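Teaching note: in complex prediction, the entire set of molecules is handled at once rather than each chain in isolation. The prompt given to students was simply: 'Predict the structure of this complex.' The entities are:
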Amino acid sequence: MAAPSELLVDLHVKFVQSLDTKRNDLAYYFTEHLRMNGVYWGLTALALMGREDALPKADLLAWVMSCWDDKVDVLSMQTPEGSFAGDQWGERDSRFSYLAVSILSLLGRLEELDKERTIGFITRCRNFDGGFGMVEGAESHAAYVWTCVGALAMLDRLDLVDSDTLCWWLCERQLPNGGLNGRPEKLEDVCYSWWALASLSILGRAHWIDGAKLSKFILSSQDPDKGGIADRPEDVADVWHTVFGLAGLALLSHPGLEEVDPVYCMPAAVTKRLGLRK
Amino acid sequence: MHGVKRARVPPVPDSVEVARKKQEKEDKRIDEYKSLIDKLYLARSSEDYSTDALELSTQVLSLNPEFQTGWGIRRTILLHGILKDAERPARQQQLERDLHLTNQSLKQNPKNYSAWEHRKWVLVTMPDADWDMEMSMVDLYLKRDARNFHSWNYRRYLISIMRFLNTSSSSPDSAPKITKLPSTSSEIAFTRTKISESFSNFSAWHYRTKLLPTFWEEKGWDATNDERRAMVDEEFELVKQAMWSDPNDQSAWIYHRWLVGKGSVPLVKREIAGIEELLEEEPDSRWCLDSLVHYKRLLVSLLEPDPESLSEREKLNLECFEMLKKLQEVDPMRRMRYVDLGAQIVPYRR
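The expected output is the structure of the full assembly:
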């Protein structure tokens, strides 16, 4: 059967709607700690397709609020070295720097952030190839490039990025099959359609890769029976690859998708409304 | 799900009976797991730090090592239970069991963030951590997958902790169990081994870009130092071997850029000559072409202060312009980058 070449919007909507119904699978229970992630991924996927009405809004909001802990303050999670811990146990890396900056940005409270310390940590994650790693000393990796470049964009410090070198490194993520990988000599994966392409987009160089070939790769990774998008063609789809595949296609201006903000990974209409669109 | 193929539709779908039996089995596993989780959450809310509670967390995490919350609950139980009350040998023994638990998890998924984090916590919480053994453990993980960044990061983390402990321990009682404290030099040798096993190991090349400057700084060797220059020459030899053995592998080319850095006129000229030699063997090699453009443009900027070099610079720029046109043909996916680079070159003026 030929790989899908069109965007199967209705199937993806059904896929996202079905996520919370798989109560017969052990996997559903194994991933309980990822529910909030799933809500964000699923809702963003729907929003990019202009179909956020497909999930019950009031119920979803109530559920999200039920997870709120009023005792934890994001700013208190910052370490002396400038990184942010993910939780009380202290796991720290550039993902949490992005999240902290994003949270404060979305809440309109960036001025409360110790920007120098935050930026200090992020710049220590920078490598000779222009890229960024998970922590200081770590190898450049497209996902961590996005978290660092995204955070720097929110802080208006893209001047700290060696854009020529990084965009060269990023465009070299495209493989002959059109897909993008996350680091040299690794396999392509649909989620890098977001991490690498959004980074290029923030730096104004999204045109340095072959968008048509990448589109084709993402589309061929759709599951034509059950909906959703997988990491590569013929693999099992999941909501993570669905949202990042759709977001990648949105960056490539695929028809039928809303414009996406490469810094926040949400519809540009949302960040515009919040006055955050760069 | 990363890397999991979609099931092919079976030629004959499961009979109602088979499907029912399968679901029954799954339902049983679901009930068992849910029951364990409910009990674990109850233990948490009732502040139960008993060995029973600990055992619950062991069962849950053995079944579902990806369950991040579970690892945190386990640490709380340990901290308020056995780690608070028990004697040193008992605490040590328990935490060794925790190391074993993380090992089981990492065997299933060596990229499990929570398992690596728990291991880090265990090591700094243990009365007698065996750091030598930890280094062997990470060696083993890097043998299994030399590109696993979790393993590399864990290795660097271990070394930094070991160095800290080694310099700050005061009494023989608290002296950490470290017989082989890794040095910058031994780490450089380790990356060399990895690169010999595979020129394609960018993780090892990357680590070298951090280790070498640190080594030179420790020695107090600036760029003019002879021993440092000798090491740099060796690096060029090494990377040249890698480039020639597989001109399509990007690891060596990317490392080469670091090695050349801002360069100097003689160095850049020498490297250009070397790559031009390779280009003769592989005329369509996009890495040769792209690198030559990069280094020739670098040479142009290095020659800029010398007004006598105008015609040389013009010649270089023209060569770059031609190579960028060729690159658009041999590497059409990245065409627009070559177009943009070409637009930056204004022949006969720069």
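Point out the following to students. The radius of gyration of chain B is 29 Å. Residues 16-45 of chain B form the longest helix (30 residues).
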